Amino acid sequence: MSAPVVDVWGPVAPGTRSSYPPAPEPHDTWSLAGGTAWVYYSPLNRRQLIRPVILSDGFSSGSSDLDQLWHGLEENGEYRFVSELHATGRDVVVLGFTDRTASITANADTAVECIRRAVAERVGGAKLAVGGFSMGGLVTRYALAKMEQDPGLPDHEAALYFSYDTPHQGAWLPVALQAFTHFATDKWGETPGVGPVLRQFSALLNSPAAKEMARWHIEKVGDTPGQASERVAFLRALDEIGGWPRTVRRIGVANGTDTGTGNGLAAGATAVRCNGPSLQDTWLKTQAQGDQVVARLQKAGEEPVSVHTNGLPDIDGAPGGVFSAPSPAGDPGSFGLAALLMGLLGNTVDPDVISTSCFIPSVSAVAAGEIDDPKVLYRPIGPDHSALDAFVCARRNEGHTAMTEELGAWLVNEVVALG
Fold first, then answer.
1. CB under 8 Å to 70, separation ≥6 — which residues?
2. Which terminal residue of the chain, N or C, has fewer Cβ atoms less than 10 Å from its own Cβ?
3. What is the DSSP letter of 31?
4. What's the pLDDT score for residue 18?
5. pLDDT digits (tens, 9 = 90+) for 286-310
6. What is the rounded CA–CA span in Å between residue 160 and residue 333?
7. 35-40 and 52-56: which strand pairing?
8. Residue ranges, the chain, pLDDT below 50
9. Phi, psi torsion values for 226, nearest 5 degrees
């Protein structure tokens, strides 16, 4: 399976790969307010910025890691995206952020600065291609729309906007996983060793960017799943600037299918269960429709806590990019992360763990409908459903932001069509 461009959990996940081979030295590095842009000129352009393509990083912990991004873009084992762009004479600007958990609108300001710098550095009049991976597609979508609407900002001079498995209609973070992470942090957040790990993940799930992207969010155990106030405010701000950039061609790709075929996960199945000295008969289930107990959480010696949902779709098995698909690098998945944390707390985890689940439903990635409706989640996606001018979905449900030849080559061809 191809390595992801955006590693959502990042190196803080127990057992995951903590470092990558160094990326090639950039030809230029731009220090931006709130981030950094690493510039790689096409060999055809003699170290001049002539046809810029801006690739924005997405959501994860901490600051952007060029080595990890380069690994996902170039050394993923399937498709060398930067090299293919370079072969067409395109210069690649990799945009990273100081804090990938910050508000999308804050990081959009960094993207605006990057776009302005690219226009200023560009030799000639070629139009820009601007987009991003995962949350990076929302960041650049907002940035371009803002530049069109704000009279105090210059023309973005872009002709193409693209997104790669971006949660245009929201992302799915299993409520059971959110509840377990917050529960474990409440109980063992001050425990040496495991406590800092738990606090990191709880904070990641409660970060501004996570709240803005998650269609259903809970800040603590016992909350009713719903849209966080931060998401409501972000959607309002996006709507105020027109929702989308209007003077560009808008395209996108999904790491899930457009046929309505899900990933095979059964609704209401036990994804992970453990027993031990710290947790007794604790389990998480995949999401089902209707009134459901999605988790039973019990610290040894205390009363159990039940986590309820109602009115949510059976979304864990929906078509879409799957959450940090398990890989040789050690990515734990979604429910697999809970299993790791249960083990760190000294418990025995049942071996038949359902590690991963849908993260970005296909209908969200190609802006083809609300993810609240099970019928929309699982219906085949046609061109008339999408707010994009063109899109492509993967032949199978694969890892979120996995760079594949199928999706990467389609994007390259779209960039080349700009002329």
1. 20, 23, 24, 82, 94
2. C
3. E
4. 63
5. 999 999 999 999 999 999 999 999 9
6. 32
7. unpaired
8. none
9. -175, -175
